[in-house]
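Bench notes, afternoon.
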Amino acid sequence: MKKKMIQSTQEFINKINEVAAEHPEWLEIFNKNFLDTLENTVKLQDDATTYVLTGDIPAMWLRDSTAQIRPYLFLANESDEIKSLIKGLIERHFQMIHIDPYANAFNEEANNAGHQTDHTEMQPIVWERKYEIDSLAYPLQLSYLYYKNTGDTSHFNDTFVTAVDDILNLWEVEQNHENSPYRFERDTWRKEDTLENDGLGTDTAYTGMTWSAFRPSDDANEYHYFVPGNMFAVVVLGYLEEIFTEIIPNEDKVNRAKKLREEIEKGIKEYAIVKNDHDEDVYAYEVDGLGNHIIMDDANVPSLLAAPYLGFCDFEDDLYQRTRETILSHENPYYYSGTEASGIGSPHTPENYVWHISLAMEGLTHPDKEEKKRILDLMVATDGETGSMHEGFDKDDSTQYTREWFSWPNMLFCELMLDYFGYQLKE
């Protein structure tokens, strides 16, 4: 089966090579990495599910694996094997969510690998239990995009319905975090890897938004209403309203999803719009409902930069435009400008390290082809002479980087290049 997948993928790559023949430098990276993800991160299981390694860490992140596989949706109608791969990942996602909806990364089998010494309710199949909103939103996004782009609804099965209950329950509980069973502490010198206050995190007040423990960087939230994650939740809750109205009618789930979506959206409007240094309204990155907020953006997605990519707003939206201008400036403490690149980094990596993920997102959220070309050229020029994307790289010397093999930015490069040539998913 995998041999047929590779054959179908190679045929697609050949087609792209004809379309993009004038950009051999782009194709060098595309050809290598579009195939690498399939050949070296995808592991087909005996139960017809799909396990996807993040790259140089031997675990599957719910978020990363969705982003890694998303560009293969362009092949789904041309290859039954690719369709099976994606369906297998969707099935495994929701199986894992039902095992533990607070976990962000899972082992291939119940082997006790990963962070088993963390002070939280670990299980042998869980690699890490850092709760992040996007760990639940990304699988919902993939299931919806698969349906919209193939017309197949067979994955909306009992596994899916059960996991949706788990997700709705968790997001509802975490609107009032004091009622939550979740605690997390790690024995570490790195404060970003643990929660203070006996594993509860910093104080919050009710806003209507849903609480998050960690950012998609896997670093702890400073204030626990993570705005980009709540934006993403608004979008995927809208997907659930559609699915449970048109495909598997269930009035209770429609009403729950709608109520939660409206409460989160109201919370964003009431608590997450703040003033920047120019006294303009922008979205905060995090708030706590007690009057505290932080203006910044992190390279990892969901991010404020990614809001149009996630489907929360249009690129032309005035509030998004002001936010975008703010976070792509030095008002964002993680925006770096150097001799080789300017862009958003993360406190997760060294100071002055720009991320390829954030560069790709600059291009994917911009409607102008020349801007997409600029970003693609910049990503190629900063590959550290490896033919692959990385996590972060030094703004003045791209041969200094973190993570030799990181499939997520590799596939975001591929997705941006496909976007440049007019490949866009139905949403």
